[in-house]
Amino acid sequence: MRVPLASVAAVRTVVTAWPELRGMRAPGTGIPNVVAVGTRRGRFGKDFAVVHGKGPAVVVELDGTKYERLIVTVEDADGTAATIRGNMHR
CA separation (Å) from 66 to 22, 41, 50, 62? Predict the structure, then answer.
């Protein structure tokens, strides 16, 4: 998944990604609290998730793309979010 930095509206971190998942998985794969990978669809539009386990995650809010948000688990969510924020307005 690639999106231009110009499309990033906001970035935040969460302790766990599972409460951030919304809509129905289509297409994708998922086992609750284990793995969720793929597109999530609902009245909001589409999100894309790559969630493994119960660790921290980065939620990236998007503008002008086919997805509304990206939700990705990463070991260093704070560091990843800081890197994205630091490059957003270049």
Answer: 16, 11, 16, 9
